[in-house]
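Weekly puzzle thread! Below is a chain. First person to post its structure in token form gets bragging rights.
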Amino acid sequence: MDMYRTFQNGDEVGIVDLWNEVLQHDPINPTRFRSQVLLDANFDPRGLWVAEQEGKIVGAIFAITRKLPMEGTNLESDSGWITFFMVHPSVERQGIGHQLMEHATEYILNQGAEKVFFSSYAPNYFLPGIDEAMYPKGFEYLKKEGFSRLYSPVAMHRPLTDYVYPQYVKTLKEQRQSEGFSFGSVQDGDFPAVIQFANKHFNPDWGRAIREGVLQGVSPSQVLVVKKHNEVVGFAMYGGYEKIRERFGPFGVDEGEQGKGLGKILLHETLHAMKQQTLQGAWFLWTSETTAAGHLYLKNDFRTFRTFHVMLKELTN
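Winning reply:
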């Protein structure tokens, strides 16, 4: 007999065990689960549902809405997110996944939201969306539950074992320096301007990543900035997400300064700094192959290694 209930103390053990049986391409440990779920500022146990059979957790789903804004007072109150779901293979096709989704979407509706995403929740997403190649059943499940594909970000990787800072980029850097641009690691007094730049020109999650990364021990030397006459016009970071040193990003340049190769210089400044730390590669989870940034990565030996689908479902009472 199936029992559906919300999270209670001790469930984290069964959920992590189930996760590692079902989501085999993306295993997790208790520390990551604690930091990205239980300690999330928006965590509400009423949004974490489990299915139990004979005292064992055989299914789980996590729904979340904002209680704390990313910036200012914007709670994105019309939106909710589902960041993971899973059902043990031995109990598939018994309606467990559907019941879990019903409970999750009911929770999101009760919080006043009108739509739900899988799984583009910031800051604590595990993956940008569903990886159709790795989890075809999960993709079909979401479609069956009324979700449709919104867009498809990609993850990219570049090995650094053969990396050498290109001479033509050094020459370009010298040219831009002669025009009043400067490149270097962030200084303490730069942080307010860099965080404000990230929030204004990109999104608040990037500003948060800088702030929280450094507060959690990321060295300021891992945050690189480009300035124009002492005004921040771009930045790049590595090792900021979950302290994973090989993880590149966030990274961005002011649109008004694009076309000057500043992004290219900043990218190589960062890759060179990573190579100096003997890192063997650089990777990130989320970009679009068709954007300017995507083209920049591809032209500089990054390669796509996973594709995700951000999914959306409109909710109606």
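Puzzle host: Confirmed. Bonus trivia for everyone else. Residues 96-110 form the longest helix (15 residues).
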